[in-house]
Amino acid sequence: FCMLKMSALRLVWVPMLLCVTHAWLCHGVCVEVDSDTEAVLGKGFKLTCISCKMRGETQASATVDWWFMAKGESEFTQIYNYADIRGYIMDDRFADRLHWNGSKNTVDVQDGSIYILNVSYNDTGTYRCYFDRNLFFSNYEFHTNDTKFVTINVMGRATRGVASILSEIMMYVSIIGLQFWLVVEMVYCYRKIAAAGEEALRESEAEYLAITSESKDNCAGVAVAE
Predict the structure, then answer these.
(1) What is the CA radius of gyration of the chain?
(2) pTM attached to this predicted model
(3) For this UniProt entry, which segments traverse the membrane (predicted)?
(4) CA 125, CA 112: separation in Å to the nearest integer?
């Protein structure tokens, strides 16, 4: 029973893992995630901006523009432009401090993230990420755009958010739960195997006694005949 149960689990999970792995390696799954919002003074910080295409098989090209409105200001200023696989810093405040951290070696950009080096308190504010995309179909082109906002605060030192703490707690709870489940399964399988072994031993013993008794009867019959 336990072996059949484990085999069934393998039949279910192995194809799923193969499908997920195949999709990840061959099709480059795009997933939109939010950017972090707390930067640490003097450290590097990634401004995440991901805009996935609605149809992955459609050819496309996209440009990405980043804008920045510092804390206390009322207007956005363009700080970075990425087009034709090249990035350009547009604001002297970020000279030599901005690097492209998105899609590589393709005009079909879906990850428009950038990386800020040596973060300062002056980098506190709201950042706007703007995707300008053309989708190429067989008979026409379709133009679309997408805008995302990221507001960051610069901290003197790294802090742990509530979400991070809760995630770690849930991870440990999951690990303990899985270990408990494995122990229960092992005990259950051991009992089933032990019971099956005892039953087989009893059957063997009964069969041996039956054979012994039959042999004695045969020997007694032979002796009487002589």
Answers:
(1) 34
(2) 0.59
(3) 169-190
(4) 19
